[in-house]
Amino acid sequence: MTMDALALSRLQFAFTVGFHILWPTLTIGTAWFVTLLSFLWWRTGKTVYRDLMRFWMRLFALVFGMGVVTGIVLSYQIGTNWAGFSRSVANVLGPLLAYETMTAFFLEAGFIGIMLFGESRVSKATHFFACLMVAGGALISTTWIIAANSWMQTPAGAVADAGGIFHVVDWWQVIFTASFPYRLAHMVCASFLTCAFMIAGVSAFHLWRGQHVAASRTAFSMALWLALVLAPLQIFIGDLHGRNTLVEQPTKLAAMEGLWDTTRGPAMTVIAWPDMAAQKNLYALEIPHLASLYLTHSWNGEVEGLKAVSPADQPNVPIVFFAFRIMAGIGMLLLMTALTGLVLRMRGRLYDTRWFQYLAMTTTPLGLVAVLAGWTVTEAGRQPWIIYGVLRTADAVAPVAAGAVTTSLLIFFAVYNLLLLAFLWFAGRVAFKGPTDTSPEVAERPGMERASVGLFTHSPTTPLPAPGAGQAKA
Amino acid sequence: MTELMQADHVPLLFAAAALFCVTVYVLADGLDLGVGILFLAAPRDQDRDVMMASIEPVWDGNETWLVMGGTLLFAAFPAGYYVLLPAFYLPIMFMLFALIFRGVAFGFRLQATRFRPVWDAAFFAGSFLATFCQGLILGGLIEGVPVENGMFSGGAFSFLSVLGVLCGIGLVGGYALIGAGWLIWKAEGPTQVFGREIARAALILTAAMMLLVSLWSAWSVPEVAARWFALPNLFWLAPVPLLTLAVIAGIWWAIWNGREAQTFVLSLVLFALGLFGLVVSLWPYVVPRQVTVWDGLSDPRSLAFLGVGVMVIIPVVLAYQAHAYWIFRGKVQHEGGHGSYG
To answer: Does the global pTM surpass 0.80?
Structure first.
């Protein structure tokens, strides 16, 4: 009975949090993109920025709504399904989550109305400020929630009493745990990178269709510049995060690498089937010493294997192993895409290369897949612990009836799939329709884009801000 | 701060903060849940457009108080959190499903054309179900939950009670009343008339259910009866029901004759009185008759950290939420969706 409720609660939490994580990922990136556009519209008065801002704001509104409603679920599920966990960590995580609500959710909620519906009622500067507050709120929220998650991964600054209740001794240590800075940087960068490719993909679609050309060129160019910076940065941060995991959670790292025995100078396992029963890899394809190089930055560094702990304390290795390969593979693919974009840009063919437009469209959802895979790596990789090395997931569950959890899980499954369909339908319609082009028609001026390779230079019109343009309806 | 933490009145401060969050939530989300409850009753599509536009910029901020209440309970009174949430598993889950539907209906209804009635229905059903579930939780809370070894020990349906159903119906009526008051204030023309017409029905339902819930809880929960009818208390508390009656009469008059904001403001007062009555019935328990605010409190160090935030940030939050309401002050200007939604 308890086992059932535990398995079902785990499934439900994994499903609801996995579904939820998609929307904040998109929210953070698009909020900052809209904020940037609002700033550019305020400072330059170029209508192309306003058109893009309104377009991405429409998509942002849908994404934000999904994030809000699926997020409320989580803050209650910690109590409804994980009462043992709540009892144990309330002193530590309670204040962190309360601070998230106070400093982030309220900030977003207080200014989202002005951002989405107030453009005609406030000045451009105020609108930019509202955007900044919403985007800032999204980042603050990320910071608190990653702090809470990192504490569960690498707990510090609190001690458990005989009854298993944690008491905080040092808040600074609780918030700034060993894995916190790496996890935070990796997550925020992932969000920006995901959105950069989302923007590039949608813009590529319009360029491919030959519509909204001015606005789409601007957005395409901005997105690819961002990607060019963020893709290598994310790989660099990922490497730092991985080496932090090597120190702090060696078993998780061993599962990511598929490394069973503690080894000097371990090989990189490109692909294999990790067999947990036999405690070894089947069909392994390996590159000698490579893992040692990127993990320890030396030829013969020692890396702890999975067998250092008993099989009962190992995570589900295949899940972690393959999720890591999906994430890292997508990271490489996105880097290649960004570099290809740079080459085409230098040759002045960024906006009219058909195959690159197809490629950009293909990469649109890949960031989200990588985020889900990365989340799987870090969450599945710390099992069987809910608080790493201290509290087992099995001891954290609430005294709820399995039947009740089955009911809620089935409804979540149905409702979330329905939501996803509705979202794809509406967001797809908005995205395919594209920005409302309010700038006057411009004759094609071939070669224009060759001349200007600067940062945000692709607005082929001289700005013609119509009087009262701010009041114009989209 | 630390000296403050030693004192006996610390639980009172945090109980007051939690109560404040619940009150703000009920009053603020009450108005937009109420508008949702009335959504299908409105005669014309244009009314629905105005109704939705009137709450669009503020609903998210209102609903955030629900998260605030939950996280504050977790942080300040963890026993309340990990006992009560599993105890009300099903009504909480269904409330969340309902809030999901009405939340996305805001975004999707604007985009929809052919399936707009579907999202209208989702918005109504979500608002209604979320409210009813809150009533079920409220009733179950007054009745009390079974606890053993500091953990909830009942079954999946032990939350279910007659009192819960009565509270559910009462809360639907009450939120509808606040929503109608909001429409009288914020809408013009036929939509405003609709608000006035429906407000009386909502008031009758609310008043009747307040009476029934009071009588039923006094009859079925002896501790509640003792609290109200024990001798010194009886005199001190007698003004509460009398004042409630006066407010009900005031709303009845204000609906057609008062100033436009009056019905709304008086409905809020009515709710505040109801909440006060609830506090009188349940004080000083977080988990009724099991865990008091003194037993259920978290660590001093956690409370100190939390307390700073609550005292500094919540006033700021209230200020800019008020500012958001101020930006969208006056009658709703409906132009086929606000601002950027062309």
So the answer is: yes
